[in-house]
Amino acid sequence: MTETTAGPAQEPAASDRAAAPRRTGALVLIAAVITVVLWASAFIGIRGAGPHFDPGALALLRMAVGTVALTVITLRRGVRLPPRRHWLLVAVWGVGWFCVYNLALNAAEHTLDAGTAAMVVNLAPLMVVVFSGLFLREGFPKPLLIGAPIAFAGVVLIGLNSSTKSGALDIAGLLLALLAAVMYAGCTLLQKHLLSAGADATTLTWLGAAVGTVALLPWTGSLVGALQTAPLDATLWVVYLGVFPTAIAFTTWAYVLQRSTAGQTSATTYVVPAIAILLSWLILGEVPTPLMFVGGALCLLGVLVTRLRRRAAPISPAAPADPATEPDTTR
């Protein structure tokens, strides 16, 4: 009787264990898609609001709205503070990611078109691939080493073709975009370190956003003035940036980063420029050139390559059990 009842009782447990990684993988994929689509839309939102808000005012309003939204998300999920020994790192990460990165990107997009800004900022995933392999011991998987440069080549193609429509490139804008790339890479590595040390992804994102908002308070006067003169649609763009590309997208980004390597997660964002040119076409009327479409295809191809995995070796069928040595389970 014991032998008869034990088998069926174990089968659901085994199937549940097999299904759990598939469910997690599906959720990670969904979170990654949400992140890249919303981050792509951020380039459009910044372009829409940028003429009416200076970089500091835009960043402050975006982060204030984002912090409020993240507070709601975090309270619903439960606040789990990181250990005190990590508080300084959390503060450094929050200032770098949510203050300096935003200021640099906003200022860069005042003089650069969305494609060029995306091209320079997307040096960051290549930096993450190299430094995560060196310092986070993630190694250098072949799919990542092959796919990331392919995707970046697509970004370059998009950037060069979009920049030709806007005249000569502004050196200050390029340097600011490069600063944004450095902040992106450094903060991704630091965030991965904090998550690997046991920090809760949602709480960490909320704390970082709050710290970034405090660091941006010197631009309060500029924001008050901008709100008095900016048209309603520009202000709504900033509110959109705070709720969607900030609160939601950074939460889904942390979810993916916690369950994947820093190199692979950052390489996934190479899809962003491809989506950005489509959104620029649909929303801003910036018609992409054929070579920009080729660049977008390269971005997608490169990201697909980075997600490839080595096929596991086939498992040989187990040999039939020897009745003489099989334990007696009826007792």
Automatic annotation (TrEMBL):
Per UniProt, the keywords (alphabetical) are: Membrane, Transmembrane, Transmembrane helix
Q: Name one GO cellular component term.
A: membrane
> Is Lipid metabolism one of the keywords UniProt gives this record?
no
- The membrane spanning regions, by residue number, are 26-46, 58-75, 87-105, 117-136, 143-160, 172-191, 203-228, 234-255, 267-284, 290-308
- What's one Pfam family the UniProt record gives for this protein? EamA
- Where in this chain does the record put each EamA domain? 29-159, 172-306
Q: Which residues form a coiled coil?
A: none
Q: Which family does it belong to?
A: Belongs to the EamA transporter family.
This chain's protein is named: Putative inner membrane transporter yiJE
Record gene name? yijE_1
